[in-house]
Design a protein that fits this description.
It contains 7 helices and 9 strands. It is an alpha/beta fold.
């Protein structure tokens, strides 16, 4: 897998699309967005040993069933998510400091105006050597819950997490291919939306086959790097 390394800060190449992944991920995806399907693929591969805090989650989180987790707490402003702690915007974390082995956050940071204090709270709540895992959109339509503020780049995350004290930072672009990215950005208005989603996913399978062949497991070279600059989102891991 292609990487760009600098002082334990890494951007990892997204996996190429293939028919096996298409069949496994999208044929029974229902109403889940393409971006979330690709996020959940990566999330399901992680094992969260020890105590995990989910910032922006709760018992009713859509991804809760795929979490491979031992002990689980959560923080949310939405009581319908049934979190461990209900907080208000801007409130400091109510949980103990240096208490968790993992802190997880799924599609939450884009809804926060001032994220730096949250990142500091996450760092403080982790034990030494603990891991922060985060997924969020990049090229994705505005979606308020209750508001939508920003779309940080991978460079922003590398710099901000490094300044907060994190190391071993790894960022994976969420990506299927250029046709799918254009579809997600447009919101795909009009009839027969589900059929057109699958048509774009299949176009990207053909594009990947023609452009990259069978000899690589990720987007590589100038074309691949350009495509990853148009990521649907990012899956981020960092260690305290």
């Amino acid at each position: 897998m292609n990487t760009l390394d600098f002082k334990k800060k890494t951007v990892v190449g997204a996996k190429l699309p293939n028919f096996k992944r298409y069949k496994s991920l999208f044929c029974n995806a229902g109403s889940i967005s393409v971006t979330r399907v690709l996020q959940y693929e990566l999330l399901s591969q992680k094992k969260f040993k020890g105590k995990t805090l989910d910032f922006g989650g709760g018992k009713k989180a859509k991804y809760k069933l795929i979490l491979n987790v031992e002990e689980y707490d959560s923080i949310n402003i939405d009581q319908d998510m049934e979190p461990t702690w209900i907080t208000t915007v801007g409130q400091a974390f109510p949980c103990p400091k240096e208490h968790y082995d993992h802190v997880l956050s799924m599609n939450t940071f884009e809804h926060i105006y001032d994220v730096i204090p949250i990142i500091e709270d996450i760092y403080d709540s982790l034990k030494e050597g603990g891991e922060f895992t985060c997924a969020l959109p990049f090229l994705y339509p505005v979606h308020a819950h209750p508001d939508d503020f920003f779309r940080p780049t991978s460079s922003w995350w590398l710099t901000t997490l490094g300044n907060a004290g994190f190391n071993e930072i790894k960022i994976v672009p969420i990506l299927w291919g250029p046709f799918t990215t254009g579809m997600v950005c447009s919101g795909l208005p009009g009839p027969c939306k589900k059929a057109r989603i699958h048509l774009n996913l299949i176009f990207d399978l053909l594009y990947s086959k023609l452009r990259f062949g069978n000899n690589q497991d990720c987007f590589d070279g100038p074309i691949g790097k350009q495509l990853q600059n148009h990521a649907l989102g990012y899956f981020i891991e960092a260690r305290k």
